[in-house]
Amino acid sequence: MKIDRFEFPDDLYYDREHGWARVDGDVVTQGITDFGQAIAQEIVYAESPRPGREVEQGQTFMSMESGKWVGRIKAIVSGTIQEVNEELEWEPTLINDSPYEDGWLVKIAMSDPAELDGLMRADSAELKAFIEGEMKKYADVLAE
Amino acid sequence: MKLYRLNSVSWQDSQLLYHALPRLGREGLILLSPATPYVCIGYFQDAEQEVDLEFCREQSIPVFRREVGGGAVYLDGEQLFYQLVIHRRNPLVPEGKEAFYRRFLQAPIAAYRALGIPAEYKPVNDIIAHQRKISGNGVAEIGDTIVLVGNLIVDFDYEMMARVLRVPDEKFRDKVYKTLHENLSTIRREIGEVPPREALWSLLADKFAEVLGPLDVETTVDGEWRAKTDELAARFLTEEWLYQKKRPTADRAVTIRAGLQVRQKVHKAPGGLIRATTEVEDGLIAAVSLSGDFFFYPQEKLAALEAALVGVPEAEAEAAIARFYEEQAIESPGVTPADFARVL
């Protein structure tokens, strides 16, 4: 699924923080969408949490720096951090170059699968409207 | 919005207060200066790699890790800090990082201009006057707020700044010192006579009010804020927080201002170790010094190679070196132009 020039794979879930979730059984892989990396611009540092840490949906749990700005990333679901993408510590631009594959952030062992119901799907009118609204807000950034 | 005019505070408070306020969900503009000097490193930096900790210990200069990004800086009472804590959904907050800096840096820019200093915004996060940086700024998201920290620089101890950094050798330190001196200015250097401190604080407060709207002035830290600050001190003033390992790197880079960097890279080529200390300005090599334990014939041509690289775009360095090799019939066993290009 494409919204304007941005890719949103059909099998993923999306939140309003420009995160995506790939569900595999009880494990959710979280990342930043193609649109999210575009407005973040070049990511120069990414700091991952320690595996084993409990996170809550919507709570900030990791940091990254881009555009002279330290931003926080919020957990897309609640659960326990199972694995982190250690490559990002060395090559944070993987998030820019490969947002849905090599640039994944963490894997979370989900504690409440019902939370997925509150996320958006690629083919939903809700995601399309949300991204189109964001595109207007970030028009200057996207034009660069 | 509240304006907290706190004037001179302890060095710890000069950092902890702006980390605490957003954790209470409160907004505010804080104006203050540290009573004593310290070194402050960026959130993602490694203290041991960036700072000469032994020197700092000897001189009783504390070191602090902030949650804001950027590089290590030497801070003291000759710098007037502004710390804006604003909710991300405050209607004054524009979308986009550059737009945010551009809007709120209007205040310090207007303050400098009122002093007769032709300050202007340089994207993303610098204020410059006569092409020299005159204010350092950074942003971090803390909780649901955005925190902008920056300074008006009355005077700057260039020597101390260059001294507290951990550098590979004295040549590098000298380069950092000279580049800083050439590219960072102060109110004193720009206008000679500095107005009284109280007048500078008032000027800064007035200019922020033009951007933020009327400000309700407080001059003390209330109980709730004090308690949160003390609570944070228990975490942020520990060695565990300061020495946490961040991304290690063999190369060193000191950003003087946006687009200007002094750096040193090392590369082990088959023919020996190559080290380059390079100054890069807006993508062009401005100066370079090459050293190492490689062989280079004719030896006296190494200085000519350094000179030939000045003004060359970074991306074209390898081609320029290859051309130099051919024209000057250079021989350097086990070291190719590509090896040199790697350290630039």
Descriptive notes:
The complex is a heterodimer of chains A (144) and B (344). Chain A has 144 residues and is α+β, with helices and mostly antiparallel strands. Chain A has a single domain (9-130), classed as OB fold (Dihydrolipoamide Acetyltransferase, E2P) (Beta Barrel). Chain A has helices spanning 34-40, 87-90, 94-97, 125-137, 139-143, and strands at residues 2-3, 6-7, 13-14, 19-24, 27-32, 43-47, 54-55, 60-66, 69-74, 79-84, 106-110, 120-121. In chain A, the strands form 3 sheets. Chain A has a 7-stranded antiparallel sheet. The longest helix of chain A is centred in the last third of the chain and has 13 residues, at 125-137. Chain A is globular. In chain B, helix 1 packs across helix 10, helix 5 (106-114) packs across helix 9 (197-212) and helix 6 packs antiparallel against helix 7. Chain B has 14 helices and 15 strands. Chain B is of the alpha+beta class and 344 residues long. In chain B, the strands form 3 sheets. Chain B has an 8-stranded mixed sheet with strand order 7-8-9-10-6-2-1-11. In chain B, strands 12-13-14-15 form a 4-stranded antiparallel sheet. In chain B, strands 4-3-5 form a 3-stranded mixed sheet, with helices on both faces. Strand 9 of chain A pairs parallel with strand 9 of chain B, so a sheet runs across the interface.
Please outline the major beta sheet of chain A: 7 strands, antiparallel
CATH architecture of the largest domain in chain B, by name, is 2-Layer Sandwich
Number of helices of chain A: 5
Please trace the helix and strand order of chain A, writing H or E for each element. EEEEEHEEEEEHHEEHH
CATH topology of the largest domain in chain B: BirA Bifunctional Protein, domain 2
So, the CATH homologous superfamily of chain A? Answer: RNA polymerase II/Efflux pump adaptor protein, barrel-sandwich hybrid domain
Mind describing the biggest β-sheet of chain B? 8 strands, mixed
Low-confidence stretches of chain A: none
> How many domains of chain B?
2
* Class of secondary structure makeup of chain B: alpha+beta
What is the H/E order of chain B?
EHEEHHEEEHHEEEEHHHHEHHEEEEHHH
Could you tell me how far the N terminus lies from the C terminus of chain B, measured between alpha carbons in angstroms? 48 Å
